[in-house]
Specification:
Number of strands: 4
Radius of gyration: 19 Å
Helix content: 10-25%
Strand content: 15-25%
Number of domains: 1
Structural class: alpha+beta
Length: 89
Amino acid sequence: MNDHICWIDDTMCTSCGNIECMNDADGKCNGAIEYRYALSGTGKSYPRCDFHWDEALDRAEEINNRYPTNAPSDFDPAYAGEVWYEEES
């Protein structure tokens, strides 16, 4: 197991004991293991090492690039009868 410092809301946790990265099964853990907010917006925190946190950030960026908030410049609602924003339907 990696040495770690557990932080929750900018406060060092003293009650959780030893935590393990939630992605530890792949054997690639590296760096500090800390509770980090879920990127899904649930408001929950999960223990991840630095390596797996960086992977999660990269994956979130890929998803955000693939499914942008705003319509791409070439989006044409007439093409398939679809709308980009639900309030337009």
